Amino acid sequence: MNTTDIRQGLSYVTNSQGQKTAIQLDLTNEAVQEIVEDLIDTLDAAERRDEPTRPFEEVKQEILRSRGV
Question: According to the UniProt record, where is the region Disordered (predicted)?
Fold first, then answer.
């Protein structure tokens, strides 16, 4: 993925004065798809930043116990 690939998947929407008011994303463009997925992942992480955390090993052991391993 490079910036040229991404730019080819972007289009600006302008008003009657020629001012940029919105952007259209071509979701058939794989580079744009990746950027959108990264943006959504970042938004999800930001929303969850204050949630309590648990150590990985604790979660891993819980999953293994639930599977009878």
Answer: 46-69
- Is the pLDDT at 33 greater than 90? The verdict is yes
CB 36 within 8 A of CB 25: yes
First CA to last CA distance, the chain: 41
CB burial string 10-24: b at 16+ within 10 A, e below? eeeeeeeeeeeeeee
What is the DSSP code string of 33-66?
Answer: HHHHHHHHHHHHHHHTTTS----HHHHHHHHHHH
pLDDT at 69 over 90: no
Please tell me the distance from the alpha carbon of residue 17 to that of residue 4, in angstroms, as a whole number.
Answer: 27
